[in-house]
Design goal:
Helices cover about 25% and strands about 20% of the residues. It contains three helices and ten strands; from the N terminus they run E-H-E-E-E-E-E-E-E-E-E-H-H. The strands form four sheets. A four-stranded parallel beta sheet has the order 1-6-8-10. The longest helix has about 30 residues. The chain starts with a strand and ends in a 9-residue tail after the last helix. The model has no long low-confidence stretch (mean pLDDT about 90).
Length: about 210
């Protein structure tokens, strides 16, 4: 899940729902009817077994410029004391903040303005983006994929590596945010694919059930 502004608040809210700390029971949402179903379980795509929705976890989630003064909006009140504390229903969470941004302007001592942190097993990163990025326009990065030089820079990006200056074609775009998101998405695609393969191999190694003796 990749959230921006109030969408970042909702992404963290979903994590709390999956952890069973908001709505319990949590019913399955049908995207075709845009409504909740009566059931609270799904068939696990890895094991094929029925399991509750609560207890599911995400591989990667991020939020861009969420919190601060926007938490005074009534639709965010449920997350007032939760936004910056990430539960164990996600493996990796990255919280992005633009250096100077008046939309989620921080309030000293307010939970919605503190750095993100883990309350259990989630790995949490806090990333400060350049102050030149714009809160509204930052997510508009589709055009970056149209230039080979920019695509190469994005593919080479690593959060722990000192990168050369981005190509001039990236001027005006939130390329650091785009690159960090792309790095994490690629990483977790690979990790989840490996998880799927390991699960399938483990299933194949299990002995076949024996016929009952009469």
């Amino acid at each position: 899940m990749i959230g921006h502004s109030q969408g970042g608040v909702q992404a963290v809210k979903v994590l709390y729902e999956l952890a069973g700390q908001l709505d319990d029971p949590l019913r399955v949402w049908n995207p075709y009817t845009d409504a909740a179903e009566e059931r609270t379980t799904i068939l696990d795509p890895l094991t094929g077994r029925e399991r509750p929705v609560i207890g599911l976890s995400a591989s990667y989630v991020s939020g861009l410029d969420s919190g601060g003064i926007m938490m005074i909006l009534p639709n965010q009140w449920k997350m007032l004391d939760k936004l910056r504390t990430i539960p164990d229903s996600v493996d990796d969470f990255t919280g992005f903040t633009i250096g100077v941004d008046f939309w989620p302007w921080p309030i000293p001592g307010f939970e919605g303005s503190a750095p993100y942190r883990s309350n259990s097993t989630a790995r949490v990163r806090n990333v400060i983006l350049p102050a030149t990025y714009d809160h509204v326009d930052a997510p508009h990065i589709e055009a970056l994929a149209n230039t080979p030089a920019v695509r190469a820079w994005l593919d080479a990006y690593h959060p722990d590596k000192v990168m050369p200056a981005s190509p001039p074609e990236a001027e005006g775009f939130a390329i650091i945010w785009a690159a960090d998101i792309w790095y994490s998405v690629k990483k977790h695609w690979a990790l989840e694919a490996q998880r799927l393969v390991r699960t399938k191999r483990a299933t194949l190694r299990q002995p076949a059930p024996t016929e009952p003796q009469h």
